[in-house]
Structure formats: structure tokens, C-alpha cells
Design goal:
about 10% strand; 10 helices; globular; 9-stranded parallel β-sheet; single chain; about 290 residues
């Protein structure tokens, strides 16, 4: 394993981690500046933050400060209530690919979506088999364009608690089965984003990480699972504050050939989003060195 104890050159910050400190939406440009001040050399920004700031100014800022991307959040959400909605999703994913390419991202992360309307509490139907088929077809169509412009796609399996509303792909095995079906040649254009928050519990995790190998492991996200978890979406823990065996999982990922960033992604309404953003970043650096 790489030694992270003396530096944080392999730390990346998913900008969701510091976007809502003290109840205030932090501008992306400010987040980038704070990362640069601390020698953090990679981020993973969200599309709405980039849109609010302007993609060209953000691109110039990143280049001037020497900060790269570990990924781009996010594409996906392929299922829809009707054919028109399915087409709109494909068009939006094309735009996401173009944005990721302009910013020099190594991959576009896909949160694939699930039952239409479920996020608002009113699912249009309950056929999860149908939406899994729509996800498969949506990724296949999106991959065609991604290949044309050279932007790899990273499928992110989400914890089963989010199977109804955010992602009907819930295990690394499911994600890799899709990769093998749609990209059997392991071209590097289709892989996975392994987020420990979503997959740490999986008894097949080590086996599936090894199956993925370097060609499929496109992104690696870290945080921790708190006990108790008070909110299923926004009560993630800082690394070291929960029950995930972070060092062991990174060992599996690196044994499989991954040599990229450990990207910190923490949604934390009741804790870290209530603190100063600088404090959060400083703690990310310390925990990256001591427990990741």
C-alpha cells in the first residue's frame, strides 16, 4: 500500500463535503481556493456548482492553481416515466460528458437512477426490473458518445437503502456485470466508482474489487458509516469516526491495481456541514494521513 502518513498528495475533495458549511452554500471558486491553500491537488465538483460559477472561469481557475479532477459528479438518472423522459436523460448525459471533458476529468460518475418520481415520494410505477433495463440501455447509448470523445464512465453502486429512488444498481457485482456486458474488451471506457459508504457491508466486496482490476477501478470515494446513522442520505461520518475498515479496503483496491486519488465525499447535515469549511478540510487532511 502507498504510505499516506507523511503527505496528502493523493487526497481529493468531493466538493459536496464543504458546500453547505454553516448553512451557507459555498461558491465553488472559494472551495477551490481553500483547497489550493492547503496543497490539495484534486477535487470532484458537482455539475450544479460548475453551472453556477461558469465552466470556463472554473476551468481557468483550476488550471492556474494546478488542481485537477478525480471525477465529475454526476451523470446517470436514466429511467423515466415515458419515452420523452428517457430521451431527455440521454441528452443530459451527453452534456455532462462534454462538461467533464472540458474540465479534464478522468471520468464521469454515474448515479444511475431508479423508480421515476420516487425521489419526490410519488413513484410512477414499482417495476424495478423495468428501470434496471432502462439503466442498461441508457448506459449503452451514453457509452457510444463517451467513446467518441474519450470520456470514461464510472458506474457508482449505491447502498440498497437507496434502491428505490437514487440507484437500482446496489452492489459492485451488479455494476461489474453491466461493465462486462457493455464493454467486454475492458477498454477503460466503462468502469466503477467504489464508494466505501455504499459497499463496505458487501460480503463479496474483496472478490469484486479484485474482479474489477485496474481497468475498471476508475474512482475511489471515502468517508465513514456512523452508528447510529440518523439520516440515510446526509449523515455520513468523517473517516475514522465510524465502523468502516478503511485501511483494509484501500489495501484491496490497491492490490487490484488502483493508484488514483482517495476522494472524500461527506454529506453531513448535523455535523460537518455545520462547521467551518477550513476546519473540515483540515480534518480531511489529517484523517487521510492517519486512517485512510
Amino acid at each position: 500500500m502507498r504510505d499516506f502518513s507523511t503527505g496528502h498528495e493523493w487526497l481529493s475533495i468531493n466538493t459536496a463535503t464543504v458546500r453547505k458549511q454553516l448553512g451557507v452554500e459555498a461558491p465553488l471558486a472559494r472551495i477551490i481556493d481553500q483547497c489550493a491553500e492547503r496543497g490539495i491537488r484534486a477535487i470532484s465538483p458537482w455539475r450544479d456548482q460548475v453551472a453556477a460559477a461558469g465552466i470556463e472561469p472554473i476551468g481557468r481557475q483550476l488550471k492556474a492553481l494546478g488542481i485537477g479532477l478525480s471525477g465529475y459528479c454526476r451523470g446517470g438518472f436514466f429511467p423515466a416515466a415515458d419515452r420523452a423522459g428517457l430521451q431527455l436523460a440521454l441528452e443530459d448525459n451527453r452534456r455532462a460528458i462534454d462538461e467533464a471533458r472540458l474540465l479534464g476529468a478522468p471520468c464521469l460518475v454515474l448515479v444511475v437512477g431508479s423508480l421515476p418520481g420516487a425521489l419526490d415520494g410519488h413513484p410512477v410505477h414499482k417495476d424495478i426490473g423495468r428501470v434496471r433495463g432502462e439503466v442498461r440501455d441508457g448506459i449503452a447509448a451514453t457509452l457510444e458518445y463517451a467513446r467518441q470523445v474519450g470520456m470514461p464512465l464510472a458506474i457508482e453502486p449505491l447502498h440498497p437503502m437507496q434502491a428505490a429512488d437514487r440507484a437500482c444498481i446496489n452492489t459492485l457485482e451488479q455494476a461489474l456485470d453491466l461493465c462486462e456486458e457493455l464493454d467486454p474488451g475492458r477498454t477503460g471506457m466503462l468502469g466503477v466508482a467504489v464508494d466505501v459508504y455504499h459497499v463496505w457491508w458487501d460480503p463479496k466486496l474483496r472478490q469484486q474489487i479484485a474482479r474489477a482490476g485496474a481497468a475498471r477501478l476508475l474512482a475511489y470515494h471515502v468517508c465513514d458509516w456512523l452508528t447510529p446513522t440518523r439520516d440515510l442520505l446526509s449523515d455520513r461520518g468523517m473517516m475514522g469516526d465510524g465502523v468502516i475498515e478503511l485501511r483494509r479496503i484501500r489495501g484491496w483496491v490497491e492490490d487490484a491495481g488502483y493508484r488514483g486519488f482517495s476522494e472524500v465525499e461527506i454529506f453531513s447535515d448535523r455535523d460537518w456541514w455545520q462547521r467551518d469549511g477550513g476546519e473540515t478540510l483540515d480534518t480531511c487532511i489529517e484523517r487521510h494521513r492517519s486512517v485512510v
